[in-house]
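Workshop exercise sheet. Pairs work together: one partner reads the sequence aloud, the other fills in the structure field after running the prediction. Swap roles for the next sheet.
Pair: D.N. / O.F.
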Amino acid sequence: MLLEVGNNAPDFSLQNQNDETITLSGLKGKKVVIWFYPKANTPGWTIEGKGFRDEFKKFDSQNIVILGVSADPINKQKNFCDKKGFQYDLLSDESHEMLEAYGVWGKKKFMGREYMGITRMTYVIDETGKVEHVIEKVKTMSHAKDILEIIG
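Structure field:
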């Protein structure tokens, strides 16, 4: 079940691309954008990730942390991050624990085939750890700019 605006965002403890532990509770006092993507190094997610990379200074100047999350292992996150020059953390949730807590892991359908996977969406968490925005309709080409407009 998706989180709703006003919910407390579940805390998590995940490894980033550099095998460092990142927790939501450790980011209190900062706004956090958490964008979920199914798989590193795929075309759509590369475009979306580059958008956050290109707008990084605008987020950073507003004390906003960007976190990308997928079920990819740390080494794939590292490769994706290094290859594309991302200045923000990509988190690895191979256990799907955080993905499930945020309601983004579940059954998906593609070309008549059902499988378990990640729903593409984004949460904006406020400085106190509450969900401020839920973005279910993600446009990969303009997503980072769309988020900046929403939180304006």
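Discussion prompt: The helical segments are 43-54, 56-61, 74-84, 97-101, 143-151. What would you look at next?
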